[in-house]
Design brief:
Blueprint lengths: L10 E5 L4 H12 L3 E6 L2 H11 L6 E5 L5 H15 L4 E4 L14 H22 L9 E5 L12 H22 L4 E7 L6 H6 L3 H8 L10 H11 L11 E4 L12 H19 L3
Parallel strand pairs: 1-2, 1-4, 2-3, 4-5, 5-6, 6-7
Helix pairs in contact: 1-8, 3-4, 4-5
The chain binds NADP nicotinamide-adenine-dinucleotide phosphate and coenzyme A.
NADP nicotinamide-adenine-dinucleotide phosphate binds next to helix 1, helix 4 and helix 6.
Length: 280
């Protein structure tokens, strides 16, 4: 099993790979021998992340560019391809988010998140297709629960991530003939990330969020990275067009806190049973 999760000398490109969940994915591949290229807007952040990744001993390089800018995406992909060769794995995870009622979003505020998350994913996948290994490449879009949970103050992210998952399904069909698999990972709340710092900024809101997760805790970056490894391995060779939650079961409940309901139902059943036993 360990061997099938080895990625020695495989080439991996990760858009938005300079921090958080995406850097965790880059690290997991680098640790297993992959050559890794990351891209994000800040040259400082890609340089720091690439230096961190290179501690595993393989090639790790970073390119600065904004996924909203097709020319910048092409330049980063070209440069990464020149260093690494055809990509075995492509991850599109760049995203932006902030909490805001729709009425407080300007058209540009809404467009900004849609442009980064959805148009950015299109740009990365569309331009990378020429460099993907055919057959065999694994493409992974990093989605979010907002894709299917209508979420208050997240109109932009909900629209964008729903689009990302539909892009996953359509390209899985269009690119299946090339032997390219396209899947989405939908992380649930993942601790110690920028996303959670924005969505649940206080200890109280973090605890409330944990209450909505059947497994009772936030996930880790490693748990998301493990799914990316499996999806890119021979263990998932017949998996494409799938939208896979890695979320402790939170998507089952649409992000709602079910515990009070559960406790109330247990209390009601206990009361009914006790009443029956006492002949009530
Ligand atoms: P993060 O650390 O802020 O990661 C976002 C990454 O995207 C950074 O590397 C950032 O680097 C890059 N980026 C942002 N805008 C970009 C742009 N226009 N062009 C290129 N790169 C850009 O956030 P995270 O919380 O780990 O989230 C990572 C992914 O997981 C996102 O797709 C998010 O929607 C998804 N997700 C997160 C959670 C969670 O619990 N955190 C839950 C569900 C889904 P620069 O600033 O240098 O550009
Ligand atoms: N509420 C309402 N509108 C907001 C906002 C907020 N909290 N934050 C930004 N906006 C609006 C801006 O006012 C602007 O609209 P305007 O031109 O009509 O004034 C628009 O959004 C774009 O903002 P700007 O700061 O120019 O965008 P940017 O491209 O520099 O940065 C963001 C993009 C706003 C998403 C920024 O938060 C970012 O870079 N995020 C990346 C990290 C991240 O979000 N990580 C979590 C991933 S889940």
């Amino acid at each position: 099993m360990q061997e099938i999760l080895e990625f020695k000398d495989r080439a991996v490109f990760i858009a938005g790979g300079s921090s958080g969940i995406n850097l965790g994915i880059a690290d997991a591949f680098a640790q297993r021998g992959a050559k890794v290229a990351i891209m994000s807007r800040s040259q400082d952040r890609v340089d720091t992340a690439a230096a961190h990744l290179s501690r595993h001993g393989g090639i790790a390089c970073g390119f600065a560019g904004d996924v909203r800018d097709p020319a910048a995406v092409v330049a980063a992909l070209e440069a990464a391809h020149a260093r690494l060769g055809d990509f075995d794995v492509l991850v599109s995870g760049a995203a932006g988010n902030f909490v805001s009622p729709a009425l407080d979003m300007s058209p540009n505020a809404f467009k900004t998140v849609v442009d980064i998350d959805l148009l950015g994913t299109f740009n990365v996948l569309r331009q990378a297709h020429q460099y993907l290994r055919k057959p065999g490449a694994s493409v992974i879009n990093i989605s979010a629960p907002q894709s299917f949970n209508p979420t208050i103050f997240q109109a932009h992210a909900c629209a964008a991530k729903a689009g990302v998952d539909m892009l996953t399904r359509v390209l899985a069909i269009e690119w299946g003939g090339d032997g390219i698999r396209v899947n989405s990972i939908v992380p649930g709340p993942i601790g110690d990330t920028e996303g959670i710092r924005r969505l649940a900024p206080t200890e109280e809101t973090r605890r409330a969020m944990e209450e909505t997760i059947p497994l009772g805790r936030m996930g880790t970056r490693k748990e998301v990275a493990d799914m990316a490894l499996v999806l890119s391995s021979g263990l998932a060779s017949f998996v494409t067009g799938a939208v896979i939650p890695v979320d402790g079961g939170s998507s089952l409940l649409g992000g709602r806190d079910y515990r009070e309901t559960y406790k109330a139902s247990v209390a009601a059943r206990t009361a009914a049973r006790t009443g029956a036993e006492h002949g009530a």
